[in-house]
Amino acid sequence: MSERSTLGIIAGGGMLPGLVAAACRSEGRPAHLLALSGHADPAVIAAAGLPVDWIRLGEAGTGFAHLRRAGVAEVVMVGPVRRPSLAELAPDWRTARFFARVGLKALGDDGLLRAVVGEIESEGFRVVGVDQVLEGCLAEAGRQAGPAPDEQAEADIARGVVVARALGAVDVGQSVVVQQGLVLGVEAIEGTDRLLARCGELARAGVGGVLVKLKKPGQERRVDLPAIGVRTVEAAAAAGLRGIAVEAGGALVLGRAEVAAAAERLGLFVVGITP
Amino acid sequence: MSERSTLGIIAGGGMLPGLVAAACRSEGRPAHLLALSGHADPAVIAAAGLPVDWIRLGEAGTGFAHLRRAGVAEVVMVGPVRRPSLAELAPDWRTARFFARVGLKALGDDGLLRAVVGEIESEGFRVVGVDQVLEGCLAEAGRQAGPAPDEQAEADIARGVVVARALGAVDVGQSVVVQQGLVLGVEAIEGTDRLLARCGELARAGVGGVLVKLKKPGQERRVDLPAIGVRTVEAAAAAGLRGIAVEAGGALVLGRAEVAAAAERLGLFVVGITP
After folding, report:
1. pLDDT digit string (tens) for B56-107?
2. Is B26 exposed, middle or buried (0-12, 13-18, 19+ CB in 10 A)?
3. What percent of chain A is helix, strand and coil (3-state, nearest 5)?
4. Which of A54, A150, A176, B10 is deepest in the core (most CB within 10 A)?
5. Helix, strand, coil percent content, chain B, rounded in steps of 5
6. What sequence ranges are listed for the domain LpxI N-terminal (chains A, B) (predicted)?
7. Which residues of A touch B84 (CB under 8 A)?
8. Nearest-CA distance A231 → chain B (Å)
């Protein structure tokens, strides 16, 4: 975080916007939140203690004006944003102009995120990745916590990688759960929490499975990287899993020390892999 | 169903074993049920009104003896079988010999089904596909019921085909739900009912999505074809979907007339596609 300009934080769901806000505060960097209503968690945004504007997803014009007024030059987009239907979007003029160019079909396409990044940059902002703002949040290679995966766990991870890559190649999901070679579940838009809850019910007798999270090939690295946190470790343990494998350099570990402590406490491994 | 020999029906879950039994009765063909405990539905098996032996999955030796005693020469395998863990399997000697050869890893692999078919044939039985026993149960090409899919529905079907093929190529799942270009859900082992229930909760505003079911490339066609029935149509309607696309010649439509009637009543389309 070398620049001292005001950082614009475009905030989707989850705890990540709060973590970025806390990092800015601890480094004394000015920051401004642009929270997406219906996606950002009001409690997380309120607790961030930063100036904030709320906009709907369809209010790109208003959002750009807010960012300019706050003196923002650099923007980070953090936290999941459920892609809306056109009916929910109710686009303002600026948003409609964007979709007139990229096509409404983009609403169902991950190419949308790349287009959004390009659009923000066309307004003169610089879009940076969360890993440039939150030091050391990218998953590292190798074992991060817990016991070493045994042969079955390694085989399950390898199978999960094959499936996650096939899914990623068609722009779907980032997470797969494999137990004893069998794919228990595959994530689309339901989120990892729901995936894990379902796989807990579907698990077979014998040794537990693994959660594999990769970024999609060609995924815009500055937005929407897969992430794990303490809650992911706890949900994985509740689902009977033996560990979590994330893509080194391609996934976020939110609260590295806390994640490692939770994994040690619950006896799960966390490993960074290079598929 | 040209042969008049006793048909052995190896019965997994769902209503399919009952349909096959009914077809045999209506044609006066003798048949014998080998029901897999923990998988076959006792109510369906009892209602079939055929001689039956129950075995565990791990009792291949006992199963072969039952089939021989019943004078079976031709065997059909119908209804889903959840793949067991080794702990659940508790293999008998004959089953263990099989796994000693194909490897325990096969438990997590769809190649297992092909190996099972080969094993049954090595015992002198002929394995036939359910479509050779149930006349006219294979999905046909073109619109089977309901309104014609509009442009968005056609686009959603095309997207579903791309994702289902990618999944099938890595030997996972057969069903995908797509709404307005967005993949709402992907089926692993949870079953289509759970997939549909979840996608109903995840659906966005605006026009509803579609369910796409394909067989996997290279799938052993004599076993485990994807199937839809009246319940699938009802669950799809409850999830807010507008229609169902199945692979022509690669999926079963169980109760063609009833499925069409349910689709017309609920306003859903059912189409057979050739991906």
Report:
1. 888 888 999 999 999 999 999 888 777 777 677 778 888 888 877 776 665 5
2. exposed
3. 40, 20, 35
4. A176
5. 40, 20, 35
6. 7-136
7. 204-205
8. 21
Q: Would an 8 Å CB–CB cutoff place A198 in contact with chain B?
A: yes
Q: What is the pLDDT along chain A (275 residues), one digit of tens a residue?
A: 445 789 999 998 888 898 889 888 878 899 999 999 988 999 999 999 999 999 988 888 899 999 999 999 999 988 877 777 767 777 888 888 887 777 666 555 556 777 788 888 889 999 988 888 887 788 999 999 999 999 999 999 999 999 999 998 888 878 999 999 899 999 998 989 999 999 999 998 889 999 999 988 766 666 767 889 999 999 999 999 999 999 998 888 988 899 999 999 999 999 999 98
Chain A neighbors of B197, CB-CB under 8 A: none
With contacts defined as CB-CB under 8 Å, which chain A residues touch B181? 105, 107-109
Distance between CA atoms of residues A213 and A153, nearest Å = 15
Give A105's Cβ-side CA count (13 Å radius): 10
Who among A86, A105, A173 is closest to B206 (CB)? Answer: A86
Two tokens, residue A103: 């096509």
Alpha-helical runs (H) found in A82-225:
86-89, 93-102, 111-122, 130-133, 151-169, 192-202
- In whole angstroms, how far apart are CA A20 and each of A28, A134, A224, B96, B120? 12, 6, 14, 55, 60
Hey, CA dihedral for B36, B37, B43, B49, is it positive or negative?
A: positive
Catalogue all structural domains in chain A, each as residue range(s) with its CATH number: 6-132 (3.40.50.20), 142-273 (3.40.140.80)
